[in-house]
Amino acid sequence: xxxxxxxLRRLRLPLVAPFRxxxxxxxxxxxxxxxxxxxxxxxxxxxxxxGEPTYTSxxxxxxxxxxxxHLLPRLLGRELRGADEVAEAxxxxxxxxxxxxxxxxxxxxxxxxxxxxxxxxxxxxVRPTVECGAAxxxxxxxxxxLEACARALEAGYRRLKLKIEPGRELETVRAVRECFGxxxxxxxxxxxxxxxxxxxxxxxxxxxLLMIEQPLxxxxxxxxxxxxxxxxxxxCLDESITSPRMAAAxxxxxxxxxxxxxxxxxxxxxxxxxxxxxxxxxxxPVWVGGMLExxxxxxxxxxxxxxxxxxxxxxxxxxxxYLARDLVDPLPMQDGRLPVPTQAGVGVSVHEEAVRELTxxxxxVAPERPMLRRP
Length: 375
Ligand code: MG
Description:
The protein is of the alpha/beta class. The chain folds into 2 domains: 3-116 and 351-374, Enolase-like, N-terminal domain (Enolase-like, domain 1), CATH 3.30.390; 120-339, TIM Barrel, CATH 3.20.20. The chain has 13 helices and 14 strands. The longest helix has 19 residues, at 97-115. The mean pLDDT is 95. Residues 188, 190, 213-214, 238, 260, 289 line the site of magnesium ion.
């Protein structure tokens, strides 16, 4: 498999409404999309990074630079056995998992399309559909919070996840419990708390939450282990889990009993599957998180979420819940479930016209043409 040409497209997708978490707000989706042309055919990759380095250190413009200046020179014109050699070819570059994941996804799409195999099948999916949960961002009032939750439940979502921030978590969770009763409910703090907030977090125990996600900073495994010993609510880690080694360390330390898996955060779908396998072997349930993906990225998320160890509903809402426009046909949610794509490759057809209309910057990189840039 040989990479011959790459399009790096920066898109701006309008959101239905701004999305706010403890780590920052998104007014629109500033997205990097890559299209690779290989000797086997074409493939698309979607980058999970957001426009600003507030949630993770990677961000759209930085990812584009890393791909262009450091990753593509290690891939262009090189013979690879397949997409499973992309990570190895990029290993000398430290970090930048979202940049690497995006390229690996495009290689996987091209290779699997050429072979007539779906990503879901390639990863080892065992389910035709997956249960969907909805993540509700921070709201400026309890009324708006309850409205957002009501909309998600009316649309059929199977569980709610509330973003929380220090000082407002009890009010937030109590309001939703009182209004909606025993709906499956969990919270995500995006690392906004300190271990000193233990007593405050312990008060969440009375609300029978499925889990509290990433209460402390991403590098605080010891703090999470201490919290896990003191809370009845299970701890789930998201930002902390950056590799199979970190997943193993977190589980061994007792820092979490559930893991939120995101392919972008760990360097790609193949690495994500390794973490899934490790968790499954240790009996740790996994679910798949979302990063405001388009239908393209969501299709790949669904393939991962259909693995046997993904036993909890993920943050996999249909993209029309948050994107005013998408790049693929709407994913049909039925009874709170989305179908796992079965077509070859990632499994959805990208509408090139929509991609063109939403592109704000395009670069083409090929060995004989180092860079062609046009607006
Ligand atoms: Mg999270």
